[in-house]
Specification:
The chain is α+β, with helices and mostly antiparallel strands. The protein is built from five helices and eight strands, in the order ββββααααββαββ. A four-stranded antiparallel beta sheet has the order 5-6-7-8, with helices on one face. The chain starts with 13 loop residues before the first strand and ends with a strand.
Amino acid sequence: MNTCLNHKELAANFVCAVCGKYFCEECVGERFYPQPGFICHQCSGEKPADAPQPLPQHPKAEKPSPIANASKNAVLTASIEWAVIGLCVVIMLGLGAYRYSQPKWKPELLSDQPADVATYCLSVLNVMEVEGEAPTLDEIAAVCPAPIKAEKVDSSILVTTPDGFAYGFSEIEVEFDPTTLTVTE
């Protein structure tokens, strides 16, 4: 027969739902939260009126303070943020390395049709302009095949087509300081 932890002379007819120890009817109270059952006065925070001595301590699950939880959440959030930032940096470095490892883009002449010849000529001149190169008359004449003509006029080079409608432009003026293109349709 089990006896009450506080009253050795009384039979223990109840088991505390929290600590699992045996108690008499005077040492427990019925509770309905978080689940129905009997809980000793020690676990419920109540003291029995006739307890001769302090009740023995038993382990209780300690709840972490809200401050500790907030601190842990902040550390976790910061860790995730830094991981995402690090991942973005690695991706950007990889994309940069990939970009500069690729061969330089060069336009290709697809056919001798006027529209293709004009597109090729304009593409090469645009690349030269973007890169800030100052092309020579011979370089421009090489990338703008006949019947497109390139000739030096004052401090610039003038590129002309025989038919502005068929080629999409009638002339391009290439200036050198800085390198700029002026297209006349």
